[in-house]
Amino acid sequence: MHYACPLGMMDVAIGQEGYKLKSLGDTGAELNIIPEIESIKAKLTMRALNMCLKGIGCHSTAVVGLAENTLLVLPLGEERKIHFFVARGAVHTVIGRPFLADNGIELENSQDQGEILSYKESDGKRLCIPICSPEAKGWH
């Protein structure tokens, strides 16, 4: 499996205890990924797996588990459920296509606002999070 089309980093909280970490939003990632050490710190329950991911640079990363139906709190407090594949080694926490698609999260481009990650909140309103502004160079 391959992954990489990063959108930007966001602060999230996971698990029942609200463990805080930075996650990479990635529209190209086929899986949601969390490093094993972060899953331990967050006290996530996982089911053992034994598989490998092949990265964009053709490197291989061991997947040692699956943390299912994990509570995920997005930057402005919206709560969702996510399945994380638990990876051993130096990887970023990645929120990929499965989560983005399941939750109606879209990447939008605006001439005035730049690139925006947007999703519908439980009250029906659409929340927009700027990722790359036309005024500032680089990712937020």
TrEMBL record:
State if Hydrolase is listed as a keyword: yes
Any GO molecular function: hydrolase activity
Checking Gene3D superfamilies in the record gives: Acid Proteases (2.40.70.10)
Task: Report domain Retropepsins positions.
Answer: 9-107
Q: Which of UniProt's keywords are assigned here?
A: Hydrolase
Q: Which Pfam families match?
A: RVP
This one is known as: Retropepsins domain-containing protein
Record the organism: Austropuccinia psidii MF-1
